[in-house]
Amino acid sequence: MADLLDYNVGAVLASLGIGSIAFAMAAKDTIANLFGSFTIFVDKPFTVGERVLLSGHDGFVREIGVRSTRLETLNGRMVTLPNSQVANECIENISSDAASHGERSEGW
Description:
alpha+beta
């Protein structure tokens, strides 16, 4: 059948391979953000409205989306962080600080 249509099967397969690699490279960040979102939703290191210190930004969580998390900094600026970055960062949840809730453990 390939002879009837006069296609070079090798060239077609090579083109499909190169196209697949390009698609995978383009989708890498999207997949990383989806896994980051899954980690945030499962672990729940913070919720909307809580104050966190994240990637050097101190502020309140305003939105947790599938692709990114939005913080409103203490000076009123909005910062959008990709969830892949959020999932790999050290997160300090200031709102859940035991001292702010009047709880103290012995030895702390």
